[in-house]
Design goal:
- The chain has helices at residues 3-25, 87-90, and strands at residues 31-41, 44-50, 56-61, 66-72, 75-81, 100-103, 108-116.
- It is an alpha+beta fold.
- The strands form 2 sheets. Strands 2-1-7-6 form a 4-stranded antiparallel sheet. A 3-stranded antiparallel sheet has the order 3-4-5.
Amino acid sequence: MKRGDISIIAVLLIGVIILVSFLWFGEEDVYAGTTFAKITVDGELYKTAELTTELQEIEIRTDRGYNLIRIIDNAVQIIDADCPDQLCVHMGAVRKVGEKVVCLPNRVLVEVVGQSKEGDGVDAIVS
């Protein structure tokens, strides 16, 4: 191995360490307060439910199918569905703002929403 090879390996290792530290520690949560599960069926709002530690179950029956949504421990997940692939059930629970669970055959979307710490004020004014 030459001196240049060792330098390249050292730079790559430092880069990997920095990348892993960002992924491991993540960024600070930019959302404060209450988070909600926004449930839409076929593109229309079905229900908005607060993510709490208490058990809540929401049953959705449409012409396309059946879904059972559970909210517990500040997380939401689809626990039962009659769709053939069951991907929505296997997606598991989501709790961070922006995460989603989707059941495409039944056209059900469950999205975690919340309020930003920075607020929803004006970003810029253009004249």
